[in-house]
Design brief:
This protein is an alpha/beta fold. The protein contains eight helices and ten strands. Strand 1, helix 1 and strand 2 form a beta-alpha-beta unit.
Length: about 260
C-alpha cells in the first residue's frame, strides 16, 4: 500500500442525522478544519438533511449500509463509511464526530503511520485507571484509505445479528472490524470528560482546562460543547462542569482566520 503524496487531497468525513446536531455543528467543524489543516481537503457530510450547510461542505446521502430499522439512525452507520466507491473518495479519509473541538494543527493526523488504519484508544473512567486498558477504540476520530476497507462491511454483513447482539456500543465492533489498527498518540485527541474537567469535587470549583498538547478535544457522551460552554449541571455532582469560555475560542461559525 503506497503512502499518500505530499500534495494529495485528503477527505474529512462526518455524519449528521436527526435534530440534535444542526447545521451549525457541521459548519463549525468545517471552519475548525480549514483553520488547522494546511493540505488540500474535501469536507464531506453524509446526512439526511443538508439544509443550512456551508457551500464548501459536500453533501451526500447517509451511507447505504443495510441495517435493521432500529439501527438505521445510530452510530452503526459509521461502518458504512468503509464501503468502496463512497462519494468517489480517493486516498486518505478521516472521520470526525460533529461535536468535537479542533484546538490545534491537525496535519499530524495525516502524517502519522501513513497508509495505516488509526483510531483513538478509548479512555477509561478515572476509577478504573489501574486496570488493564481494554483494546477498544473511540470512533470520534479514525482514519483509513478509501477503497481498501470494503472487507469490514462484508464481514459485518456475514455476522450482523451476532455483532449487534454482542458489541455495545457500536465502536467496539468498529474497532474489532478494523483488524490491524494503530492508536493515535495520546496527547493529540483528548477527552473533555476525562482530561479537561477536574476530578470530583474539584469540578464544582475549577473551570475545565485545555491540555496544552491537544489538537482535538472530544466530547463523547455529555456534555456537548454548547452545554459545556454555558456550564453543565448534571444530576450527579461528579458529572457537572463549570462554564468553559475557552470553547468559544475554537468553536464558532466564523470564516477561517
Amino acid at each position: 500500500m503506497s503512502a499518500p503524496t505530499e500534495q494529495e487531497a485528503v477527505n474529512i468525513v462526518t455524519l449528521k442525522w436527526g435534530d440534535r446536531y444542526g447545521p451549525d455543528f457541521a459548519n463549525r467543524l468545517y471552519n475548525g478544519v480549514a483553520r488547522n489543516l494546511t493540505r488540500p481537503f474535501r469536507f464531506i457530510c453524509f446526512t439526511d438533511n443538508g439544509e443550512g450547510l456551508l457551500p464548501q461542505i459536500e453533501v451526500h446521502p447517509l451511507p447505504p449500509i443495510v441495517l435493521p430499522e432500529s439501527h438505521q439512525r445510530t452510530t452503526w452507520l459509521k461502518l458504512g463509511l468503509f464501503m468502496d466507491g463512497l462519494a468517489e473518495m480517493q486516498g486518505d479519509c478521516m472521520f470526525l464526530d460533529l461535536d468535537l473541538l479542533i484546538t490545534g494543527n491537525i496535519d499530524c493526523f495525516f502524517e502519522y503511520m501513513p497508509g495505516k488504519r488509526c483510531i483513538i484508544h478509548n479512555w477509561v473512567q478515572r476509577h478504573l485507571v489501574f486496570k488493564k486498558r481494554p483494546d477498544v477504540g473511540n470512533s470520534s476520530v479514525f482514519r483509513w484509505r478509501a477503497n481498501t476497507t470494503q472487507f469490514i462491511v462484508d464481514k459485518f454483513y456475514a455476522e450482523a445479528d451476532w455483532a449487534m447482539a454482542n458489541f455495545k456500543p457500536p465502536q467496539t465492533y468498529l474497532t474489532y472490524g478494523l483488524g490491524e489498527k494503530y492508536w493515535w498518540p495520546e496527547e493529540w485527541a483528548q477527552s473533555f470528560k476525562r482530561q479537561c474537567i477536574p476530578p470530583f469535587p474539584l469540578n464544582l470549583f475549577q473551570t475545565p482546562k485545555l491540555p496544552e498538547e491537544a489538537r482535538m478535544v472530544v466530547f463523547h457522551g455529555l456534555p456537548d460543547p454548547d452545554q459545556a460552554l454555558e456550564g453543565y449541571k448534571a444530576k450527579r455532582l461528579h458529572r457537572r462542569c463549570l462554564p468553559t469560555p475557552w470553547i468559544r475560542d475554537f468553536w464558532d461559525e466564523s470564516a477561517p482566520r
